[in-house]
Amino acid sequence: MLPKVYYSGKWNTLLFIVLFFLWVFGLYKLILTTLLIYLCLRWLFRRKIFSHFDGLTIKQGLILAPLSGFVVGTRSNVTHKQFGEDLREIRFMIPWHTGYGIFLPDTAEVEEIKVEKGPSFFRLLNQKIPDQIDKLFPGLFLTLRNLVGDKIHMQFVKCTTGYWPELRVMPGDRGRSTVNIGYFPFGGTVLLYLPSSYEILVTDKQFVEAGQTPIAARKEN
Asked: Does domain 62-218 have CATH number 2.70.70.10?
């Protein structure tokens, strides 16, 4: 059984039309090539299937990875023009092959979505994204508010070899932890910001799996 994918079903219709005309004109080698490309795209744009936390009660205050990728770095006492002061930052890199899904890291409500268009950022150069104290780096900005009233922020930075993320939520939408809210075609860089009351549980170069890996936890008073 083929996995569910993120792209629209209209592409499947287009594929069958192309295959029909290739068959009519006897271009059988191109039919094989087209099918191989189609299967590769099905795999790249596959939807995540959870196995561990899915259906279980997740401890309140536990933040799960909202994506599948690598931790590039963590910082404390960060000031961000859009998100505020005294934040903890986790920077992720989503490779092209690990799955493109974006998931809620905690049970939360979508509070704000904002887009700042501008230059792309090549994820593999491992260069530093400029501090955003006075000026925002281009990206898509998402703010969530969880059940205890804490704000969780994410900034999606488009890669030179990728596309802008597509979110399928609007301000006011609510969802439980691990719910799929969109996808990031061909991956990119994601910055996640938490209040200082959270402890980061991941380290540099660690691979995290969407909806599976705990990345932070709220400190108990």
From this structure: yes
